Every structure is written in structure tokens, then in C-alpha cells.
Amino acid sequence: MGIDDIKQSLHDDEKKVLLALKGKKKMSESEIARLTGMPLASVSHASLWLYSKGLVNINEKRLKYIELNDEGKQYLKKGLPERRAINAIGKKEILVKDVEDAIGKNVFKIAIAWLMRNGLATISNGKIKLTDAGLKALKSKMDTEKAIGLLKTRKSIDEIPENALKIIEKRGKVINKTEETLRTIELTDKGKDIIKSGIEIGKDINVLTTKHIENWKKYTFRPYNIKAEAPPLKIGKGQPYKAMLDEARDHLTSMGFVEVRGPIIETEFWNFDALFQPQFHPARSMSDTYYIKKPKKGELPKGYSDLVRKTHENGWKTGSTGWRYTWDPEKAKRLILRTHTTAVSVRTMVKNNGIIPGKYFTIARNFRHDVIDATHLPEFYQCEGIVVEENMTFKNLLGMLKEFAMEFAHAKKVRFQPSYFPYTEPSVELFAKHPKIGWIELGGAGMFRPEVRLPTGIDCEVMAWGLGFDRLSMLKLGINDIRQLFSTDLKWLEDTKIRYEWV
Predict the structure, then answer these.
(1) Average pLDDT value for residue range 260-274
(2) Same domain as 126, residue 47
(3) Whose CA is closest to 43, among 27, 31, 57, 29?
(4) Could you read off the pLDDT of 117-170 as tens digits, one per residue?
(5) Based on the domain organization, do 453 and 418 belong to the same domain?
(6) Distance between CA 85 and CA 330 in Å, rounded?
(7) What is the CATH number of the domain that holds 195?
(8) Is the CB of residue 108 less than 8 Å from the CB of residue 81?
């Protein structure tokens, strides 16, 4: 751009800044604001535009400041606690209680600590007297008083002598430290040429009115750069994690699955017994499961619960010998917070009473006693599903899990590891490679055992899987800590790209 083009592009605020710098080597933004009467924010904005046009250079320096807080200001006004104690003691030995009464109990507690630490007084038989150092302090200011006296107004740390700064920092509870950026502006050669060519404030029209439009030939209008970048538009949108839940539902629905639901508060029966998990299994202990205090128990489904009892005790007609113990219906009635959504799957199988084929899923919350870390929370979402169909194989299950992890969660590498669950055989765990924290477990899967299927009335293979949705989300959103999913960090919420957006 030539000089004339640049001059035409200048806003009045930019012109004011240039004229303020005329003949000056450099000025701070605050000095320019005082000289021109412009708000500091307007000076900063104008300076950035001038910088983009090559008319000024901007230098930044980070300054550290120190000032007394409210407690420190009280000390400056009334004296340090040890000073007040020294004045109360004087040259004589007096009762400790008399000093405490004279300056106040709370102040005395602080004063006595500093008197002892600095060797200014001694205490014996309930009496206190000043040492030689204390008597000297009685007559003259202590170093601490001199140092704090330097902070009658806020000071740059560079203005405070090093020894005084060390003394002040020992009394850290009486000071506040802050940091500010000092911006200084200086003209470039190009900026100086613009000023020499002559610039006038208020000549060009910046804001259009009806009067200007009606008599447009009389005015000179400031040109607008239609190619200038506009600030990013912050619009309302869905929370990233919530949007992922919705996307997963759409993804599974498009694969032919039907969404089903179940209660968060479950009986042990649906959560454990119906899944052929014995009543002596360690996962059913208070250390792993949240139990409800009131009410403590629910009801058992008639008929079906008797089949589950027989399966546990002797295998019923499933072909196994069961767990060979006396099943306790009262334990099965106990209410808990659901530990996995497999309870929803088995409820669905009973409700459909052996209907084949069928594909079902649920995405819902579960609760476990887990130590909170980068990949664990005591409350989490699980993505659970079952496929009820003739001639289903374990290989079909692995293929579906791999497809879901790679297409939905964008996992680059997936692996399977043999595992054990009381309700599936064979069983497997799904792992995915996270770019930052390595391999993470996404969940378990397997083919439901006959001990689970047959009591529900289903006499064909059922493949089942339960994936930790929060960990899937870590992969998809590219985060390293599961707690970030529930962050209140506005920048992360605004910048994270999601599929679902509402305007």
C-alpha cells in the first residue's frame, strides 16, 4: 500500500496515537491514553492496527508488582505486632498477661512468635522482658518496619532493594504480588513518513448516518477493507461430551440397533444374579458396590427368579452344575446403584420373552467404587449392546467391536485380550491405543453363557458388549484426562469441534 492508501485506511484513534508519538522515541500505552484522553483499551486496539500496517513497533515487558494487603496496611497504620509488644513491655520485666491485655490476644499470638524468632525478648516464670536486641528496637525502627514502610504505595519489585525484598517476603501473608504487561509503542520509519505527509483528525467519515447518505457528495468517507479478518464468532453449541452421546445413539441406530432403558437403582438380582454372578463373588462387596440405605430391598420377578435360583444351585437344564450353593433370595432383593448396564440387556431379553432376532443398545450411567485418576471416575457412562440372532459367532462380535471403535471413536489401533466374566464365554477385553497415554481398556464383551440365556427363554447365541463411553470419548475428542469431559474451561468448550451444533 502507498502512503495515500495507508492514510485513507487510518481510523481517528490510529491518527491520535500517531500524533501522540510525534517527536517521541517511545511511549507506553498508558502515557498515550493520558495524553490523548482515549480509553486504554482504544489505545491498545489502535496500536495493534498500526502495527499490522507497519507504522509502529510494539514492545512488551512483563512487570512484577508488590503491595500490602489489608492486613499489611493495618500493620503500617498501627504498627507490627512485635512493635506493639515491644512498646508495651518497655524497659521493665512485666507479666506476659499484661502485654496480652495491652495489645489484644490475637495480636499477642503473632507478636510473641516474632519476638522469640528474632531474639527480641525472653520469658521466664510468666514474665517477659526485652533482650539487648529488643531494647535497641525500642529506640529505633527495625529492619522489617523499614522494609514494609517502602510499600506505602504499590511498587515494582525492581524498585525494592534486594535485602528489603527478602525481609518483606518473610512476612508473605501481608503482601500481594501481581504481574502486568507494559506495552511501549514507537514509530517506524514508515510511521514517521505518514506523519510528515500530514494527517488530520475528523476529516473522514467513519460512521454513516442518514445525513451522510443523503448528502454523500459533500463528505470524504474512510474506505473499508472488506478482506480484513473478522474475530471468531462465539455461538451457542452443545457440550462436547453430551454431543458425543447423541452421536453414538445415531450411529448405533443407523446400524439397526434399538435403544432400551433400565433403572439406575437396581436389585442385586438384575445386576448380578440374573447374569450368573454368584452371591459370594467379591465384586458384590461394599468395597466395589454402592448399596442403598433406604429402602434396602426391592422385589424379585416371579417365575424367572426361580429359574435363576435353580441355575445358580444346580445348573437347571443349562448343561452346567451351577455354583452349587444355596441361593438366598433376600440377598438378591438388596438395592444398589447399578454397576453396569448389562442389567439392562438381561431385562430386555426377559421382556422380549425369547424374540429372535433382535439388536438392542443402551447408553447410561453406572456407579463403582473407583479411585479417581486420568482414566477412572466413580460415575461413568457405559455403551452396552446385545445381538440376539441364530448362527452368531464370536468372530462377528470382534468385527463389530473393531468397526465401532475405529469408525466412531477414531481409534487408530485396536487389540483384543482374552478375559473372564461370569456371564460370557468366550470373553474378551477391547483395548485402543491412545496417542498420549498408550493402550487403554475400552470395555469387555463376549457370548452370553447358557446359564444367562436359557432362563430368559432365548435358545440361540447372544453376543454382548459393554464399553466405557467416557474412555471412547477421550479418544474421539483427543483429551488426556477423563475429567476434562466435564470441564468448565470455556476455551475448551468453545474450541472443541463436535458434530452436533445448535444456533
Answers:
(1) 95
(2) no
(3) 29
(4) 889 999 998 899 999 898 998 889 898 888 888 888 888 888 888 888 888 888
(5) yes
(6) 71
(7) 1.10.10.10
(8) yes
Domain that holds residue 491: 242-495
How far is 272 from 339, CA to CA, in rounded Å? 9
* pLDDT higher than threshold 60 for residue 353: yes
- pLDDT of amino acid 72: 85
The alpha carbon of 357 is separated from its chain's Cα centroid by a whole number of angstroms, namely: 44
> What grid cell was written down for 170?
518473610
**Residue pair 462/450 in contact by the 8 Å Cβ criterion:** no
How many whole angstroms separate alpha carbon 8 and alpha carbon 2? 10
Instruction: Indicate the burial class of 452 (C-beta count within 10 angstroms; 0-12, 13-18, 19 or more).
Output: buried
Euclidean distance between the first and the last CA atom of the chain, given in angstroms as a whole number: 39
Residue corresponding to grid cell 438388596:
334
Cell of 290: 454402592
Confidence class of residue 206 from pLDDT cuts 50, 70 and 90? Answer: low
> Are 73 and 21 contained in the same domain?
no
Which residue from 409, 94, 49 is spatially nearest to 194, judged by alpha carbons? 49
The verdict on 334 and 434 lying in the same domain is: yes
CA distance 30 to 294: 65
> At which residue does the C-alpha cell 417365575 appear?
303
The structural domain count of the chain equals 3
d(CA 149, CA 72): 10
Whether 450 and 320 have beta carbons less than 8 Å apart is answered as yes
CA distances from 147 to 80, 111, 163, 497 (A): 12, 18, 9, 53
